[in-house]
Design brief:
- The structure is a single chain.
- By secondary structure, the protein is mainly α.
- Strands 1-2 form a two-stranded antiparallel ribbon.
- The two termini are 19 Å apart.
């Protein structure tokens, strides 16, 4: 007991030498450091959707301890790297594939005008890079580099140019050297034309040339060496016609646009998802029966789904009951058969893409749609709502029915990442891909909504606690000093007892607590 009292006396003397300024500095520094960690953790979570400390622990510390990465992280890595190269990708990987937006806007006449007005770029580098790859696939072939046609040779490199001005300059050079270069006219219509009308004029010029080229290559299409050229000419022709249909619709010539898309669907039913353009025109014309016939053909279990397919089906079924629907009356008498079908269609659409209702109900602001979309992701929801919101507004009561019923979907799928109801489980890779497709100024819609990571809540609590301690120590230094002495003394007692018990088994020099 003499040794214990002597050690306690020395420890008390050490604590008495610490001034209140030391405690203020200690608690203030701790609060500052924990606050900085909290700010960084919050920023990292908002930007990447995960905790930095948790990610570093799983990536670097867990392997040392013999642990493995969670299954969802492993699957994310596979989906990002092997979607296009796998022979038989799983359904989840297929749904994480990035698709060309069938209703993408014109860069010169629409995207650039947005940039001129707001000073913000609506397209990301990743999105534009995917478009460059698409253009190279659609509009070029290996024989262009040595075709002897200077325009085709220049356009072979034009689509690879990074800057827009460089692409436009190369396209103009191609037209000077080869006036019948259809792909150069396409590029100028897409990126240089500042109005829809001027873009349409460019596409009409390109159409005449593309039809002539397609007829020529068609006669040689049976020869292997001309197969790639024929496929290129066919892609160019279909692309121009589709763009002309889109320009016609934007200029108010909806019937003309519908006719173009209908003819394209008959000739090329599986290219560029033209049926989505046709559905948009039919809804604009209020041709709901024709639209239903299209859905009967494309809303098949063996065909890929899209937000346009699922939500258009929900809109058509809602149209029959939405104008008379009342949630108060429905809660008393129950849902009729037609109302039940409409609600089921809404639940089906929401399960496929749960981000769309926020944009249709205008609880989340819309931005210009990207050139590529991720099915079931936020990018697809933006693209759908941007073009189809007006169709929902034209049907009386449709948005009210959606507002009253869409959240009921989540009761049927409490664990959407593990098990779906009518579709495969919701892919966990959508957030990462959408962050690359959508501009930084857009607040990404995340599903299912993530809870705050443990380390953010822990650092928030630590920062608050140390800040309170720093304030109390500054205001009441003597009282807080006494509390600190008592606290450290209580913590030190068990160590002194353990050392006293171990002292007979070790040399005295190893357990020397007495102050010299």
């Amino acid at each position: 007991m003499d040794d214990e009292s002597y050690n306690n006396h020395n420890f008390a003397m050490f604590l008495n030498t610490l001034t209140p300024k030391f405690y203020v500095a200690l608690t203030g520094t701790s609060s500052l450091i924990s606050g900085m960690i909290l700010i960084f953790e919050w920023w990292y979570f908002k930007k990447y959707g995960t905790s930095f400390i948790e990610q570093m622990s799983l990536t670097h510390v867990a392997p040392w301890l013999g642990g493995d990465l969670p299954e969802d992280q492993n699957s994310d890595g596979d989906s990002n790297g092997s979607t296009s190269g796998s022979i038989n990708p799983s359904p989840a990987l297929q749904e994480c594939k990035v698709w060309r937006n069938p209703l993408n806007l014109l860069r010169g006449a629409e995207y650039n005008r947005y940039t001129w007005v707001t000073g913000r770029d609506p397209l990301t580098y990743y999105d534009m890079n995917l478009s460059a790859q698409d253009h190279q696939t659609y509009f070029t072939c290996d024989s262009d580099a040595n075709s002897g046609r200077p325009g085709d040779e220049l356009m072979y490199t034009a689509w690879r140019e990074i800057g827009q001005e460089a692409r436009i300059k190369t396209a103009k050079d191609a037209l000077e050297k080869q006036p019948d270069c259809a792909t150069a006219l396409i590029l100028l219509a897409e990126e240089e034309a500042s109005t829809i009308q001027s873009a349409e004029n460019r596409f009409k010029q390109a159409l005449v040339i593309a039809e002539q080229n397609h007829k020529k290559s068609l006669t040689y299409s049976h020869m292997p060496e001309y197969e790639a050229i024929h496929r290129r000419d066919m892609n160019v022709l279909v692309y121009i016609k589709r763009r002309l249909g889109m320009c016609a619709k934007k200029l108010g010539k909806v019937k003309e646009a519908a006719k173009i898309f209908k003819e394209l669907m008959k000739e090329y039913p599986s290219i560029l998802n033209i049926h989505e353009n046709y559905i948009d025109c039919l809804l604009e014309l209020s041709s709901y029966n024709d639209c239903l016939n299209i859905l009967l053909k494309y809303d098949d279990i063996s065909l890929p789904k899209s937000a346009t397919i699922c939500y258009t089906a929900a809109l058509l079924k809602s149209r029959a009951v939405a104008d008379k629907f009342s949630p108060e009356v429905a809660s008393k008498r129950g849902l009729t058969q037609q109302e039940l079908q409409a609600v089921d269609a809404i639940h089906r659409a929401v399960e496929f893409n749960p981000h769309v209702p926020k944009y249709l109900l205008e609880t989340k602001p819309l931005i210009l749609p990207p050139e590529h979309i991720l099915k079931r992701g936020d990018s697809e929801a933006i693209a759908y709502a941007f073009f189809h919101l007006r169709h929902w507004k034209r049907v009386d009561g449709a948005l009210n029915l959606l507002h009253c019923t869409w959240e009921g979907t989540f009761r049927m799928i409490p664990y959407p990442l593990e098990k779906g109801h009518l579709f495969y489980p919701y892919p966990s890779c959508t957030e990462t891909a959408d962050r690359e497709l959508l501009p930084a100024f857009h607040t990404l819609s995340v599903y299912p909504k993530k809870e705050l990571p443990f380390f953010i809540m822990f650092t928030a609590g630590l920062c608050t606690f140390t800040a309170i301690l720093a304030f109390l120590t500054h205001q009441y230094p003597e009282s807080m000093g006494a509390v600190a002495m008592g606290f450290f003394g209580t913590i030190a007692k068990p160590f002194y007892l353990i050392a006293e018990k171990l002292e007979p088994f070790f040399p005295s020099c190893l357990l020397q607590f007495k102050m010299v």
